[in-house]
Amino acid sequence: MRRLKNSTAAASTVDTISSLPDAILCHILYFLTTKEAVATSILSKRWIHLWHHVHNLNFPDIKVETVRSSVLFNEFVYSVLLSREIIAGYNVMNSFTLDIRYDNPHLAFDLGFPNIRKWINVAVQRKLEHLCIRLDVDNLDDNGLDYDADYPNLPVSIFTCRTLVSLDLCWFRVKGFSFSGFQFPSLKTLNLKWVNFSKVRDFMLFIAGCPILEDLHISQMDFFLEKDSLTLQLQEFKRLSLPKLKRAEFVQFGCQCFPVNALSTVEYLCINTLKVNQLQRPYDVVTIFHNLTDLLLHYHNRWDLVLHQCPKLQNLQLSKGLCDPMWCEKGQENWVEPEFVPQCLLSSLRSCTIHDFSDLQSELMLEQYILKNAIILQTMTIWCKTEQPEMESKLSICPMASETCELSLCC
Amino acid sequence: MAQEASSSTSSKTISLKTGDGEIFEIEASAAKQMKTVQRLIDDLGDDITIPLHNVFSKELPKIIEYYKKDITGEITKDFEAEFVKDLNDDEVKVLFLAANYLDANKLFEFLSQNIADRLESKSVEYVRKYFGVENDFTPEEESKLREERAWSFRGIKEDE
Hints:
The complex is a heterodimer. Chain A is of the alpha/beta class. In chain A, 27% of the residues lie in helices and 23% in strands. In chain A, helix 3 runs parallel beside helix 4. Chain A starts with 21 loop residues before the first helix and ends with a strand. Chain B is mostly helical.
């Protein structure tokens, strides 16, 4: 938005916000929800039309419980879109945020989604940069529907919106779009939760089409791959590269053909159950994470490998995560002592936090190994569900490589 | 810590004088982030104490604190939350107006968001007072508008 320019140093004192020019007031309105921005129209006559010049739709928290509220909300959104276009002549929308929950499938699928699709179709034609649509519906079971199967369809017009800088979607199905040649050349932030791509190859092509991606979050997406397609996909996408990626977070993400080396530039990595092929077998290509300083990992069975891959690691967190048996790594009993001490323990690891500690021998050995070898470690914090006096004593007598290390055991 | 030797002024400090006569020092690289200050430096030179008639000793230290963090690239969401945590709505408003006057874009953006957050679900009267707006509607005009925009007024606090 345009800024107030003071041409001389001795500008008249501005002591109230209302004495600022319209452009600056609209800047504050931009950060309000649309509901509140429209409400400012009754502040005074000057404010009747100011909200028309705010080019976003912002509905961060909508709950629709009745037919009437559904109709009212739909009408409101249409009237906002129309007045901005007609009165202010606006054909630009910078950002569209909608986080909406419907009380039952009828409200959602019959009254809500057809209109949401229309709004999305309008928005993506208006140089949209930020899109966040999160859907939720209650009482699906009562109506014979399944959260993990009856996804609403995402309007594929989204994939033609090349101005997008950030995309955040929750609970959609993606189908009916050909991803060959697909590109989101400006996309920096991607957040997908419960987004069902009907073909895993579509998903991989989608990710491959985001060359300047910096922030990636994927949650609750599990792709089932036949064995023969797995080999094909692995081959096709093994060179996938995301050279600007800084942060990646995976929660309940299963995609056997996703190449871990695509994550190699990250500084922050959080993996709370990630099923990919490479993590479970000896590698042909070992990925070194040269920039990784913060790692949050669901418990792993080959720590010797993981620690070696993060030479600059500063902060390490381990947790059991959401331990659905389908997702848990097997073979946690075996602790394999690294052949030689990993670089990160010698020169960079400052903090280590263990969540959900239990009395598994391999966990204890990992902690002892870290304490014994991490030269500049400052804190080791262990969270357990119940008191573990045995473990406490074992750890407190463990020799520590770092003189300044603080060991905390919390319950 | 790696210093950016962008120019000979990289470690130079600039003196700023507030409207109530107090003097504060900031680094030249921080001053660059406040376009009004930079313009004054360009006009008056960097050896002179730069006068800021519309910024006062109560708020300038906070602004300096923000830009100190900015030039070392340490501004995080946590820092920003902490920065405004103990400020009341009026103090944020004063900072916002100062950031606008100083043409300090990053702080201005952040405070715009913070003001918007603080006004969430506040009553219309509160917002009028906060912005300094005179209500020039008749009661009939106002209630007509409220009716037309009924959906906007659900859940917004009514005044006593």
